[in-house]
Each structure stands twice: as C-alpha cells, then as structure tokens.
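Final report, Chapter 2: Outcomes

The project's central promise was a pipeline that accepts a single protein chain and returns its three-dimensional structure in a standardized token representation, suitable for archiving and comparison. That pipeline is now operational. To close this chapter, we reproduce one record exactly as it appears in the project archive, with the input sequence first and the structure output second.
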Amino acid sequence: MEVLKVSAKSQPKSVAGALAAVLREKSVVEIQAVGAGAVNQAVKSIAIARGYVAPNGIDLIAIPAFSEIEIDGEVRTAIKFIVEPR
C-alpha cells in the first residue's frame, strides 16, 4: 500500500492530485499526518481528491485510525487515513 505523508505545510491541491493518481493506479492509499495542522491539510486533500475522481465514477471513503511512527528516533502518534473507493 502506498503511503503519503502530509505535513502542516503541505498544499492540499498537490496532495489531492497525488492521492487521485495513486488511487487510479492502486485503488487504496494510506495518508499519515502528525499534528493538528497536518490532519487539517490531510482532510482537505481527501475532500478535494473526491472531486477529482468523482467524474470517473469513483466514490471515496476514508477510514481514520491511530498509528505509531518513528521520527528522528522518537515514537510519535499519527493519524492515518486509509482512502479507498466505496
């Protein structure tokens, strides 16, 4: 499964484009975000990506969950979204 990492400085339109491209190719993608700003950008990206793939007859769903990831040797809690077609 492809993993896209989103930061608070990520541009939602760019992430949405990458998300749509991966979804068309592999049909499932995981988005990881650490922190409130990153989660905000991730959610906006998912909403924008829904509009990108809707003309192709694809209806996206996002399943949120917690995930433990390691950043610079430190374990952090991230929010992950599994995005796939309904």
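Archive annotation: The beta strands are 2-6, 29-33, 60-71, 74-85.
This record, like all others produced under the grant, will remain available to the consortium after the project formally closes.
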